[in-house]
Amino acid sequence: MKQGVFSLALLGLLTKAMAASPSAAASLNTERGYAIFQQSCLTCHGNPQFERAPGPAALREMTPEHIYDALTNGAMYPIVGNTLSDADRKLVSEMIAGRLMGATNATLAAAYRCRRNPPMAAPSATDWNGWGRDGDNSRFQPNPGPKLNDKTVGQLKLKWAFGYPGSSSAYAQPTVVGGRLFVGTDTGSFYALNAETGCVYWSFQAKSGVRATASVGPTGTRSAVFFGDLKSNVYALDARSGRLIWTTRVEEHVTSRITAAPTLHDGVLYVPVSSWEEFAASAPLFSCCTSVGKIVALKAATGATLWGQYVIPERPRPVRRNAQGVQQFAPAGGSVWNSPAVDPSLNAIYFGTGDATTAPAPLTTDAILSFDMSSGKTLWSYQVHANDSFLGGCFDEKKTDNCPDVVGPDWDIPVAPILVRLAGGGRRLVIGTKPGDVLALDPDRHGSLLWRMNVSGPLASTQTLKPGTFPLPGMMWGGASDGENVFFGLNKGGAVAIRAADGTLAWKAELSAATAPKGSSASNASPISAIPGVIFVGGMDGTLFALASDTGKELWRFNTARPFRTVNAVEATGGSIYSAGPVIVDDGVFVASGYSVLRGVPGNVLLAFGLE
Known about the structure:
By secondary structure, the protein is mostly beta strands. It has two domains: 2-97; 110-611, Quinoprotein alcohol dehydrogenase-like superfamily (Methanol Dehydrogenase, Chain A, 8 Propeller), CATH 2.140.10.10. The protein is 9% helix and 30% strand. The strands form ten sheets. Strands 10, 11, 12, 13 and 14 form a five-stranded antiparallel β-sheet that branches. Helix 3 (32-40) crosses helix 6 and helix 5 packs antiparallel against helix 6. The protein starts with a helix and ends with a strand.
C-alpha cells in the first residue's frame, strides 16, 4: 500500500506541470492522456535513477478509480490534485489504467436481460463475423436478407438502441453471428446481445478498453468469441455464457495495444499489435523509441502462441544519447493498425504497417507485408511510402533532438488490405492510403505493383505535405469490394468507387453533412460496408448514408448524432461514426455512433435498423 501511495505521489509531482494547460483540461479527446503519461510519467517510472518508483507496468495495473480518488480526495490532492481540473484528473487516471472510470461490470437489471439463453446457432454465410466479414476483408455481405436491397433500403427504420454506460466513444464494430451481437466498449465492458431485440445475454469485464471487432469460432464442442484489448490482452469467452476460456497477453511493451481486430481462420487467431509510443516521444527526457509493430498467431482452442513476428527484423538497440544525456534507440515503429487478410491458397496473410518512429525509416514501415501463416516468416514486402519517420510534437519550434532530422508526414497504412477476386479471373490486393493513393498489388507475384492512382489528384509520391497536415484527402479505416469495384469513404468528405481490374475511377460522390450548411461536406473516412447494389458509409457529423453502388447516388440517410431512448434505459447520445463501420445481417443494419479519441463528437450508442 505504501508503495502504491509513493507511486501516485511521484505521478502527481510529474503531472503538476500539466495543470496549467487549458487545452488538456478542456479536451474530450481521450488519447490526449497518452501524451500526458508519456511526457510526465515515463521519464521516471522505469528509469533506473528512480529506484523506488514502480515501473510503468505496475502503474498500468491500478484502477482508474483508485488513481482518481488519490488525486481528488486522497494524499495526492494537496500536492497536485487541487491544481488539476477534474477533466485532467480523469484523463490521466483513465489513460494509465487503460479504461474509463465506472467500468465495474455492474450487474444488469433483470428487465434488460434476455429471458432465455438458447444454444448458439452455428455460424452461417449470412453472418457478419469479424472486421471484414470474410478472410478477404471484403466488407461485402452477399446475403443481406430476403428483403433488403437497393429498392427497399430507403425504408430502413430504427428498431432499437442500446446505450453503453459511462462510455464516450462507441469505437468498436459489432459482430453478428447466429442471431447474437457481440461488441466491446471503451470502458472494457463486452456485451452479447440478442440482435433482434437488443436484450442482453451476458456481459464481461475486460482488463482494458475493447476497440477491436470480435470474431466467433469453435473451440472443441462449443463456440467462442475472441477479441483483444488496449493492454494487448487477447480473450476467448464462451459465446453462449460469457465465461472466460483463456486469456493471453501478446506483447509486454508498456505502450503496446490491440486496436485492430484479430483475424480468425482455421483455428488460428492472427493478432495485430500497435502502440501509442509515438504520441509524445519527442519529449527530451523520454528514451525513444523501442516499440515495434507485430503479428502474433494464437491457437484458438487454448490461447497458446504459435509464433510472433515483429515487422522490423532488427530489434531496437542503443544508437546515441540526446542533448539531455538520455539514451535513444532504433529502429522502431511500424504499428499494425489494420486487420490481416488471409490467403489460404498461398498460406499467407497480408497487412499494412505504420510509420517509423526512428530514422532512417526501415523498408518495412508504411508498407504492405505478407507473412507465412504457419511460421510468421516474411514472404514479401512492398513499401508504399518511403522515409516516413514521425513523432508527435516534432513541429516547428517544438522540435527536439529526439525528433528525426526530416520529420515524415505520418501517413501509415491504416486501411485494411482487401483481397479482391475478379469475376473474370485474377486477383488484386487493394490498399487505400491517407493521402489518397490507392494501389493494387499482385498477391500471386510476390506483391508486384499492378496499378496506382490517387482519388483527388497527383500521386502522394509527388506531393510535399507539412508534417501533421490534417485532414488528408484519402482514407483512414477501411473499404469494401463487390468483386468489380472497390469503395472507400474519404477523409475530406464523400466516397469513391474504383474499378479493381485497372484502377480507373468509376464514380466519386460528394455527401452533404446533416448538421452543416447545405452543400458542405463532413469527413466520411469511416469503414464502408456493402451489399449487392448498395454501400453504407458514415460521417464524422454522425450521418449514416446508403448509396447506390453503381452511381454513388444517395438512397437513404439517418442522423445518429442525437439522443436516443435505449432498450437498457441508459442515457445515450450518438456522435461521430468513424472507426466502426456498419454491419448488415438478416435485413438489419447495425452501427455504433460516437468517437472522441483524437477528434470527433462523443457518443455511446449502438443502433439497429430494419425494414418495416
